[in-house]
Amino acid sequence: MIPYGRQLIDAADVAAVTDALTSPMITQGPHLAQFEEGLCEFTGAQYAVAFSSGTAALHAAVAVAGIGAGDTVVTSPLSFAASANCARYAGATPTFVDIDPSTLNMEPTLLGPHIDAVVAVHYAGLPLDVSKLRHRPRVVIEDAAHAIGAVTAYGPVGNCTRSDMCAFSFHPVKTITTGEGGAVTTNSATYAERLRRFRNHGIKHRADADGWFYEIESLGFNYRMTDLQAALGTSQLSKIRGFVERRNELAERYRNVLSELPIELPPRAPEGWLHAYHLFPIQVARRRHVYNAMRAAGIGVQVHYIPIYHHPLYQDLNIKESDFPCTEHVYSRLLSLPMYPALTEEEQDRVVSTLRESL
Ligand SMILES: *Cc1c(COP(=O)(O)O)cnc(C)c1O
Predict the structure, then answer these.
(1) 129 near 108, Cβ under 8 Å?
(2) Which atom of ligand 1 is nearest to the CA of 121?
(3) Which H helix or E strand runs over 185?
(4) Which of 152, 148, 147, 170 is nearest to 162 (CA)?
(5) How far is the CA of 206 from the centre of ligand 1 (A)?
(6) Which listed residue, of 46, 156, 190, 275, carries a Cα 20 to 30 Å from 242's Cα?
(7) What are the CB-based long-range contacts (under 8 Å, 24+) for 7-11?
């Protein structure tokens, strides 16, 4: 089976993890600090705090921003459920605005005035321009699970020049991996401090107290990343530019060979931006037929995503599908083709010929 996405692990990654495994601290040690420094350097943000998953990173970002009961958090309905679940974890109410079919991101001009926070998803690795939000809510969090390595007119995604915090995921299908893992970048010392406490049970040490003393002032979690994961993260981060470049090459190759087929290709990044191409989502008529034919031929196409408000968990929001015509239309036709740096041109040709036959 050719999957829709997978990690690329080499001997240097294996050596980095092996080395971390025999070092004195295998969690909360020097590899974690090094990975966080590497994320700051790569994104340009002042602070980076690593987490056990992208979902934990999103939960932490929403919580430390002070979002809670009575607050409304808007996100894109065309995303993984974690983009909205993070609001629920904090006791807030998630809500959605329709997508812009020309970017497949949420339509920023649809954002109303009574929103407390936005979780801005950069769908497929194409960044949403958060400076275009019609009403800027109190808190702007980027869900950049797809978009590490992407660049906008405002610099690298994650530099937080247009947001309060930016969350990443290092799940194996994402651009770089730590097995499971995530991080939040920010330029706020206050948020960074709260994020570190949130991932460690809310524990606070005081410089003027006895060495053994600590206090828990607020509820936290164990959302820590191990040093084994962080060592893998640093090794992966050293190769990220090549990963993103390869994804862009594969995307251009798809665009060339697919141009005459009766399908819609994914939106391109604006001039001067860099797309991260976590996904290569095409739109096809008779999607069920194409999905089944490709799966039967061993091509692991996937649908990203079932609109979040379709899930039974979200029925309490009483959302009407008719309020989301673009999301519904696009969802009915979406299909992600395999896209990852280890995909060979022969495999990509097989994907294309199978798609052509199935159409
Ligand atoms: C993968 C993903 C997440 C969650 O990341 P995990 O590391 O799997 O917890 C959140 N948002 C989006 C858009 C994702 O694709």
Answers:
(1) yes
(2) 13
(3) strand 182-186
(4) 152
(5) 34
(6) 46
(7) 7/172, 7/173, 7/177, 7/340, 8/239, 8/243, 8/340, 8/341, 8/342, 9/177, 10/239
